[in-house]
Design a protein that fits this description.
Chain A contains eleven helices and 14 strands. With 288 residues, chain A is an alpha+beta fold. The mean pLDDT of chain A is 96. Chain B is of the alpha+beta class and 769 residues long. Chain B has a seven-stranded mixed sheet with strand order 3-5-1-13-10-11-12, sandwiched between helices. In chain B, strands 7-8-16-15-14-9 form a six-stranded mixed sheet, with helices on both faces. In chain B, α10 packs parallel to α11, α11 packs parallel to α19 and α12 packs antiparallel against α13. Classes of the chains: A alpha+beta (288), B alpha+beta (769).
Chain lengths: 288, 769
């Protein structure tokens, strides 16, 4: 029989100790919407679950205009998308987290869980990347901050070392005249995994783009940033042509595989289409 | 008892009191409160849990199976392999006289010599809990010699294809076809239907269109996985609790494979969580039974969803080629069809029905249809809602839509011109009785959806028709009048589509009682006469015939009872439509009248309770026709097809319970839309199924479909006392060609391979530039 231990941490340090002691097969249990399924289907060997939902700061979030948004890693996403501040200041995040699974899943699923599951197609990931989010990590050797865009090392893999876990995800306060948007393409209208997803962020000075970030999911072994798309925009006037150039850059940057969820041709084309569509909305939001 | 007894004069517009009304289903409360018992809910003392070890290969020879380590695991009670089957005479006929090769049946349940598909069961473990059973599976060592798989139907037909069944020869069911009986083949059967002279037909045609089509494997997608619990008692009696569309059929097949008399088996069907044909085949029952015999304890097996996709169900993937010739005025003068259906691991695709239905909605003087049943490395195909018809009729309907364009004749007018009528011979040459093909097409033509204007960019409209012959087959029931005037109706048909309600309604209608007076119940195989599967759209038809005959018999017995009590001749007693029993006044002028309840209450003292049992095998089922209209929008940037509006028109004969009729039609459309747009099986080069989950086998959800409008046409079936035709199957037939035509109308691209997934549509759009 597959026996696992369940341990409940009530502080960050306790969680670090339990994870360090548990070794490679100790896993963090936040909402459990991925890890429980993987363990049940024997896709991952799990010897012990370390439940972090009883660490108070892991289950809350804070927003203020000076510090921005900090989200405890295990906070269920439904709390986020129902929050007025998040709806107002981070609509691209809301767009992503309202389509993760169904309503029941959203009652448990968390940004930290989505991040650490590290699926190339994870819906919140490209949204966080476009928003320039930072993962706040705690571990036996102290705390460190890593950009979400630098977090992933392969499908299901990331930079976390033994005993480390994500405590919070931080988002800067959106600057004036900035906007972001997120979309995915799925064959159905709900309950599906992205064929491609895309987050876009722009900051404008008048009609000139001063900053931009474009992130693509499900087109490589990890979610990717598309610096060439940002370069196609920054310093230029925002026009249909510059947006098309950014979209072309996404097309070029996408190096997808073909599988039952999509072909190479389809995914590259959708990278372009979604870049264009999200940029159109991001620009509209930036203009206010 | 009687709660809402209807007035005898409250007769509906269809001339019936109850038929055509919408009472609440008797199983409704249990289902909405979660109390309904399904097969996987079966609990009993000492229950063991079994899990199956399944093939990780698409095609392989089993060299050896070593289960010693699994057996040694604490908590494991038994391991089963094909060697544990008793070893029986491996040929013979099934109940309907069709060949039933028991070796194939048994090998599909537990592979003996070869595994023929990814997920093919090779061994079973029974243990004290399901987790131990799962652990034990990892301790069974199977030595495989991996073979090259062939999953595509046309590749399987090639001369140099890997052979699934060494020694197989084509069974030719066509008089004028020569075949090489020396050559091993995957083509299990070749059949041909032919009428007239297609050569002279095509020679005379002004326009000839020939096209090729493919359809994918499609799974029925029922929510409830297969489950069977068996207890083999020490007296040799076997009891099975399962989820099946055919308890009697499973009982008989279990008896055959286990080499025991049917008298030793009681099959107790539980509530069923969907079947659509996929719960007609038997997968688990003999395994549970043999594990129970080995352990002396009850054993339950419930499939995982992955196993359901890998090893049960799907309808055949197909390759079809259609050639149709017509005159300038639209008269179709010749039609030729080549239909190749992948049967999966063992022969028995629904190509026969595909052949019979291909040109079903039309009368065509010169026609030839060749059908091929081809084994491939995949799960053995199973019945799925109008089995075989959606693929062949898609190909024909799509060709007719192209014909209409090249002739410049409206596609509905073209269909009306060629519609099959009463007296026309069907594909097998038998004249059709009264049917509603023309009425359906007229109703489509006049439907506000069809006459509405289509608005917007990249939108298109399609129309398609469908035919299904429906089934008759054996049904039996017992009805007993209780002392309070209620009537217990015991049926053998598992209730999938609301048939407890529809059968109770027909009995109540016949007897002049209220719906609430009838207490319908699905019984086990010892409690009711042999009843064939719930399938073929037959239950409300055939079970309704039985209910009608039961009602007539019970009325007669109530008259006899009253005649005895009153001491009058039987012909002086009348049974009225409101269920009162009367005779002329007695010599003293006293009224002679019993209410139904009044007479029922006297049964015990006047000869005992009144009951009747009726078994029938009716063949007068009525053919069903459906005409569909769809509007779609195609996103040219993503290839995604959105259904904006869908209307399904169908001749149902008589709608016994219109809500369940509408539900059946809507369900059929939803499944057909999945076939057209998103559902497909992905096999890799090694024959491994890559999308064995509801996540990646993409059935449409409620968010993917608009409310499906229905229009019920009623052309009563002359072969049924209430005109019932059968409803459930034909609505899955038209969606593929209907949606295919709409996509063409929207973007100018005809797609010949189903499904038209966003990937396919997008790549076609990109190719067009």
């Amino acid at each position: 029989m597959q026996t696992v231990t369940y341990q409940r941490a009530s502080t960050v340090n306790e969680a670090i100790a339990l994870l360090s002691d548990g070794g490679e097969n100790a896993r963090v249990l936040a909402g459990g919407t991925d890890i429980i399924v993987q363990a049940r289907e024997r896709a991952r060997t799990v010897d012990s679950f370390v439940d972090i939902k009883h660490i108070p700061e892991l289950m809350t979030f804070n927003y203020n205009t000076s510090d921005g948004l900090s989200v405890g890693a295990a906070t269920p996403v439904y709390l986020l998308y129902n929050d007025n501040d998040i709806q107002t200041h981070y609509p691209a995040l809301v767009e992503a987290i309202t389509v993760i699974g169904g309503t029941a899943i959203q009652g448990r699923a968390s940004l930290g869980g989505n991040l650490c599951n590290s699926s190339p197609a994870g819906d919140s990931l490209t949204s966080m990347m476009a928003l320039g989010a930072i993962a706040n990590i705690a571990g036996p050797n102290g705390e460190r901050d890593v950009a979400v865009s630098e977090f992933f090392t392969g499908p299901g893999r990331n930079i976390l070392d033994l005993g480390e876990f994500v405590v919070a995800i931080s988002f800067a306060t959106p600057p004036a005249n900035s906007g972001a948007a997120w979309q995915r393409f799925i064959p159905r209208n709900e309950m599906d995994i992205a064929v491609v997803n895309c987050g876009s962020y722009v900051q404008l000075d008048g009609e000139i783009v001063t900053d931009a970030r474009i992130a693509l999911g499900a087109v490589a072994a990890t979610p990717i940033m598309v610096p060439a798309a940002a370069e196609a925009l920054i310093g230029r006037q925002i026009t249909d042509e510059t947006i098309s150039a950014a979209a072309e850059a996404s097309y070029e940057a996408a190096t997808p595989i073909a599988d039952m969820r999509g072909s190479v041709k389809q995914r590259k084309h959708l990278s372009k289409v979604l870049t264009q569509r999200t940029l159109d909305i991001a620009v509209e939001r930036a203009r206010g | 008892m009687v709660t809402t007894k209807k007035n005898a004069d409250a007769i509906g517009t269809n001339g019936y009191r109850l038929i055509g009304t919408r009472p609440i289903r008797p199983d409704g409360t249990d289902k909405v409160t979660g109390r309904a018992a399904y097969a996987a809910d079966t609990q009993m003392e000492g229950l063991l849990f079994a899990r199956l070890l399944r093939s990780p290969h698409g095609h392989a020879k089993i060299k050896s199976i070593d289960a010693s380590q699994a057996l040694a695991l604490d908590g494991v009670e038994a391991v089963l392999t094909a060697a544990d089957f008793p070893g029986i005479e491996m040929s013979g006929n099934d109940r309907n006289g069709r060949p039933a090769d028991n070796q194939w049946l048994q090998d599909n349940i537990l592979a003996s010599d070869k595994v023929l598909y990814h997920g093919h069961a090779v061994a079973a473990v029974a243990a004290k809990d399901p987790h131990i059973a799962e652990d034990a599976l990892t301790l069974i060592n199977v030595d495989y010699e991996v073979l090259t798989p062939v999953t595509d139907v046309r590749e399987a037909m090639l001369d140099d294809a890997p052979i699934l069944h060494p020694g197989m020869r084509t069974n030719v069911q066509a008089s004028d076809v020569e075949t090489d009986t020396e050559r091993e083949t995957n083509i299990a059967m070749h059949m041909r239907l032919e009428r007239g002279d297609i050569k002279s037909g095509f020679d005379s045609a002004d326009v000839v269109i020939e096209r090729e089509f493919e359809t994918s494997w499609y799974h029925q997608g029922y929510i409830e996985p297969h489950s069977a619990t068996a207890f083999w008692n020490r007296d040799g009696k076997l009891t099975i609790w399962n989820s099946s569309q055919g308890p009697f059929v499973v009982r008989d097949a279990t008896a055959k494979l286990l080499d025991i008399p049917i008298a030793d088996i009681t099959l107790i069907p539980q509530e069923i969580g969907g079947g659509f044909g996929g719960k007609i085949p038997m997968y688990l029952e003999p395994i549970s039974a043999l594990l129970s015999r080995k352990t002396g304890k009850p054993v339950r097996i419930t499939m995982t969803r992955e196993a359901v996709f890998q090893a049960t169900g799907p309808t055949s993937a197909t390759y079809n080629r259609i050639k149709i010739g017509a005159m300038r005025d639209g008269t179709i003068v010749a039609a030729d069809a080549y239909l190749a259906y992948a049967a999966g691991a063992y022969p028995g695709s629904p190509v026969g029905a595909g052949v019979q239905c291909a040109f079903g909605p039309y009368y065509i003087e010169n026609q030839r249809i060749d059908g091929y049943d081809v084994v491939t490395n995949g799960p053995k195909s199973a019945a799925y809602r109008a089995p075989g018809a959606p693929a062949s009729e898609f190909a024909v309907e799509a060709t007719i839509n192209e014909l209409s364009e090249s002739l410049g004749i409206d596609s509905v007018e073209l269909r009306l011109k060629n519609a099959i009528k009463e007296g026309n011979p069907n594909a097998a040459g038998v004249p059709m009785p009264r049917i509603g093909a023309e009425e359906v097409m007229e109703a489509v033509k006049n439907h506000p959806h069809y006459t509405s204007e289509l608005q917007g960019d990249d939108v298109g409209r399609g129309v398609g028709f469908g035919f299904w012959h429906n089934a008759g087959l054996e049904s039996g029931s017992t009805a007993t009048i209780n002392s309070d005037g209620s009537v217990s109706l015991i049926v053998g048909s598992v209730d999938i589509g609301g048939t407890r309600a529809s059968l109770a309604m027909q009995l109540a209608e016949t007897m002049g009682l209220s719906y609430e007076d009838i207490k319908p119940r699905v019984a086990d195989t010892d409690s009711v006469p042999f009843t064939h599967v719930t399938g073929g759209s037959r239950t409300t038809f055939a079970g309704g015939w039985v209910a009608y005959e039961l009602g007539i018999e019970l009325r007669e017995k109530m008259r006899e009872r009253a005649a005895n009590i009153w001491e009058v001749d039987l012909d002086e007693v009348e049974y009225s439509d409101d269920a009162t029993i009367t005779s002329k006044p007695d010599n003293e002028g006293n009224e002679r009248e019993f209410t139904f309840v009044g007479l029922a209450s006297k049964m015990a003292s006047t000869g005992g309770q009144i009951s009747a049992t009726v078994s029938l095998n009716k063949t007068s089922q009525g053919a069903a026709y459906g005409g569909h209209i769809v509007d779609v929008h195609v996103d040219r940037d993503t290839g995604k097809v959105e259904i904006l509006r869908y209307t399904a028109v169908q001749d149902v004969g008589t709608a016994i319970h219109p809500s369940y009729v509408e539900g059946q039609i809507q369900g059929g459309v939803a499944q057909g839309a999945g076939m057209a747009l998103t559902e497909e099986y992905f096999y890799d080069d090694e024959g491994l199924l890559k999308n064995a989950s509801f996540l990646d086998y993409r059935m449409p959800t409620t968010l993917d479909l608009p409310m499906i409008e229905t229009e019920i046409v009623e052309v009563p079936n002359p072969g049924h006392p209430f005109g019932v035709r059968g409803v459930g199957e034909v609505p899955i037939v038209p969606p593929m060609p209907t949606i295919q035509q709409a996509v063409y109308d929207a973007i100018g691209i005809r797609l010949y391979d189903m499904p038209m997934s966003p990937r396919v549509v997008l790549e076609e759009l990109l190719n067009e530039g």
